[in-house]
Amino acid sequence: MKPIINIVGIILIILGIATLAYRQFNYTETEKIAQIGEIQVTAKTEKTIDFPPVLGGLSLASGIVLLAIGNIKRKKK
The whole model's pTM is what? Predict the structure, then answer.
């Protein structure tokens, strides 16, 4: 159980740092609008997902707490 807590803690720390560094994620979506026979009409739209800084801070803090809990449990044994 202890290694799982440490691994989850490290993943949360990495995600928290990435979320604080990159506050938004952009991607392009291709949408088929119409098709007549073999002719297709498509449109590309760019979409953005914004991440609030609070999410990154909470993820970072949770990861640090999980690592601390994992290390405390390891020292007691």
Answer: 0.69
